[in-house]
Each structure stands twice: as structure tokens, then as C-alpha cells.
Write a structure and sequence with these properties.
With 409 residues, the protein is mostly helical. Helix content is 75%, strand content 6%.
């Protein structure tokens, strides 16, 4: 929500001014007319929407846990939000919670107030809160979502921790290459200036000279390339094709499938257990998969479920999910324990994802080390070959000089 300073007129032409929150100017105009009978004359945005950035998984987990525990103790939503806001040390979070409180004091349900906060609260949480309000189980729903976002945070942390070392190796490799081409190679250029050097040496020396003289062009090129990649990846067709490639590549593809399946299973279990219909749960859960290619197949599965087909058969046609999920859902449908089996499947997939990431990192680490070694060996060869050639010429020239000296005597 943004804060607006406005001037408005009533039907008699009397001017009044004030400040109020609204999602946008159109809603500001509508709210003044409906609630106060005022006609908006002018406005100024005093504070921009600080809730535009989505809350992180850890922040969502803390919010749901605190709200659920206080509501379960009989504390009102208004009082609970006041306490949560007062305890928060983050100014952005306090703004979000205060805005929620303001909307609720005006008579808006919690789910609707959360939906008004831009991208701060994900659709999943808004739908679960709405389900909890309708069923009268809001405290238990909040605690369930706290557990859900805690699991999501753990999975995300595992992925980041697994990738930290390979990324560090890649950065180290880049820094070593830059250091070699800007500091080490130039010191040999004077030595090789009047010599006939091998092709590899000429190439590396030319690149070193270009890097030192035109480093700003390299930076500009890297920035343009990064911007182009970001722009291209935002195209729906490109993102879908790239996400399809991610689940098809050897070794890493299996890890991506397991992570996507774990997210989907965890979300579906939370939504279905929270009281949402299966079709509604599927429509929300597809947005948490994190893979556009897999998401494309879920709407067709929703149509099949709506027409009476079993969930396991409908999802079996979605390319990208692990087959274990389909078999688990089939068992859950037969036994009537779908929610609990989905939750246990999600935990199993999260464990498998952690194991798969460790295996992937164990492969990536030596590959990165080999790349760094190859770069260093290439540079060493480019430097040593001319030096070896120079020493060879000196050794060949020494006997000839001795022989000439003897003849002169």
C-alpha cells in the first residue's frame, strides 16, 4: 500500500485534505467517494509501497508461527499484529504489518488485507488464510504454514550451501585468470619482444594487451551480455525451453526434478490439508514448482481432475515430476490417506534432494579444479615454450662459437 496526501471536495464544494493509504490512485479515488462522499481533486504520493518485495521464507515462517500461536491463545488479530509489528526489527516488515493492521481495523478480512500488500505475501499463503477463515481453523492453518515455509527455507538453504563452494571456485578461477593476464604475462612481454614465439604465446599476449588497454570495453561487454541474458530469459518461450533442458540433462536433471517435485508435493499437501479443493490446490501449487516447463502441464491435469479422473492419472501426464510422487498419490487415493502420504513424500524428496546435491557438488568440484588447472597449465606452456626455445638456441650456438674461436687461433 502507498500513502497519499490528498485534497477532495464534497457535494457542497467544501474542500478537505488528509492522508490515507491506497493500492493506487484509482482505488484512492473510489475509496474517498464510497466511504466519505468526497471527490478527489489532487493527490501526492507521500510514501511508496514498501511491501512490493516478497517476504522471504524465514520471515513468512516467523510471521505465521507468531500469529498462529497468539490466535490460538485467544488474542485478537489486531492485537497480535500490533505485537508482531512491535517485535520486528526490520522497518520494511513493520510497514507491512502496520498496513495489515490498518486494513483489518477498517473491517477487511486478514486474507484480503494480505492480498492488498502487493507481492509481500505469496498467493499460497493468502489462499490458505482464506481457507482458515472460512473453516474457523485459522490458528492451526497458520501453524501449518509456518512449518511449510520452514521446510521451504531449509530446502533453499541446502541448495545455496551446496552451490557455495563451486561458485567460490568459479570466482577464484576468474580472479586467477585476470591476475595472470594483467600482472604476470606483461612482465614476460619485454623478454619475448624480438623473438619468434609460438602461436599460443602470441594469442595469450595479444589477449593480455587487449585486457589491460581496453578493460572498460570488457566490462561493458560483460554488462551488455548479462542484461541480454536477463532479457532473453524473461521471454516465456525461452524460459520454458531452458527449464525443459534443466530437467533433461544427465545427473543435474534428476536433482532439478526432485527439487521441483518436493516443492509441489509439500505445497499440495499443505493446501489440501488446509481445506482447499483439489483443483484449487493444484492451481495454486503449480506456481510454487519453480519450473515453467512443468507448470505448463499442470492446467491440463486440473481439467482431467475436474472431469472426474484420478489425481495420479492426471499428474502422470505431466512431464518432469518424479514417478515416485505419482505412485505415492495412487496409494494415497486407494487408502484415503492422501494428505499424510503427500507430506511424507515431500520429506522423502527433500532428503533425496540433499543427497543428490552432495553428489552433484562432488562432481562439480573436481571439474572446476581441472578447469583452473588447465588455464594455469596453458599459461605456463605459453611462457615456458619461448624460454625453452631461447635456451635451446643458446645451447646450439655455444659449440659453434667455440669451433669458430678455435679456427681463428
Amino acid at each position: 500500500m502507498a500513502l497519499y496526501k490528498y485534497e477532495a471536495s464534497d457535494i457542497k464544494g467544501e474542500i478537505s485534505s488528509g492522508q490515507t493509504e491506497a493500492a493506487d490512485p484509482a482505488r484512492l479515488k473510489a475509496a474517498l467517494k464510497e466511504k466519505q462522499g468526497l471527490f478527489l481533486l489532487s493527490f501526492e504520493e507521500v510514501r511508496k509501497d514498501s511491501a512490493g518485495k516478497r517476504l522471504r521464507s524465514g520471515e513468512l515462517s516467523d510471521f505465521c508461527r507468531e500469529l498462529g500461536s497468539m490466535l490460538g491463545s485467544g488474542i485478537t488479530i489486531v492485537k497480535a499484529l500490533s505485537v508482531i509489528s512491535a517485535r520486528s526489527e526490520n522497518a520494511r516488515l513493520r510497514t507491512v504489518y502496520d498496513s495489515l493492521n490498518t486494513q483489518i481495523r477498517r473491517g477487511m478480512p486478514l486474507s484480503a488485507a494480505m492480498a492488498q500488500q502487493g507481492r509481500a505475501f505469496p498467493e499460497l499463503l493468502v489462499n490458505m488464510v482464506m481457507s482458515g477463515e472460512e473453516s474457523g481453523r485459522l490458528p492451526s492453518v497458520c501453524m501449518k504454514m509456518a512449518e511449510h515455509y520452514e521446510k521451504e527455507k531449509q530446502l533453499s538453504s541446502q541448495v545455496k550451501a551446496a552451490l557455495a563452494y563451486p561458485v567460490m571456485l568459479a570466482v577464484m578461477t576468474l580472479l586467477v585468470v585476470i591476475g595472470i593476464f594483467t600482472f604476470i604475462l606483461p612482465s614476460f612481454m619485454k623478454l619475448f619482444k624480438d623473438m619468434e614465439v609460438p602461436l599460443i604465446t602470441r594469442i595469450l599476449m595479444g589477449f593480455s594487451t587487449a585486457l589491460r588497454k581496453y578493460w572498460f570495453l570488457f566490462l561493458l561487454g560483460a554488462a551488455v551480455l548479462a542484461a541480454a541474458v536477463v532479457f532473453i530469459m524473461r521471454l516465456e518461450s525461452v524460459r520454458t525451453a531452458f527449464d525443459k533442458l534443466k530437467i533433461k540433462i544427465p545427473v543435474a536433471g534428476r536433482l532439478v526434478r526432485i527439487i521441483c517435485t518436493a516443492r509441489f508435493a509439500r505445497t499440495l499437501a499443505s493446501l489440501y490439508g488446509g481445506g482447499l479443493s483439489m483443483t484449487a490446490a493444484l492451481n495454486v501449487a503449480k506456481n510454487t514448482v519453480g519450473n515453467k516447463y512443468i507448470e505448463k502441464g499442470i492446467p491440463e491435469a486440473v481439467k482431467k481432475v475436474r472431469s472426474g479422473e484420478s489425481l495420479s492419472n492426471a499428474l502422470s501426464a505431466v512431464d518432469g515430476f518424479d514417478v515416485k510422487l505419482i505412485r505415492t498419490i495412487a496409494v494415497g487415493e486407494e487408502t484415503g490417506m492422501l494428505e499424510s502420504l503427500l507430506s511424507s513424500a515431500a520429506e522423502s524428496f527433500e532428503y533425496e534432494a540433499a543427497a543428490a546435491m552432495k553428489k552433484l557438488v562432488s562432481i562439480i568440484e573436481p571439474v572446476m579444479i581441472c578447469i583452473m588447472a588447465a588455464v594455469i597449465v596453458t599459461v605456463v606452456l605459453a611462457v615456458m615454450l619461448p624460454i625453452y626455445s631461447l635456451y635451446t638456441e643458446i645451447d646450439n650456438a655455444a659449440p659453434l662459437a667455440a669451433m669458430m674461436k678455435g679456427r681463428l687461433k
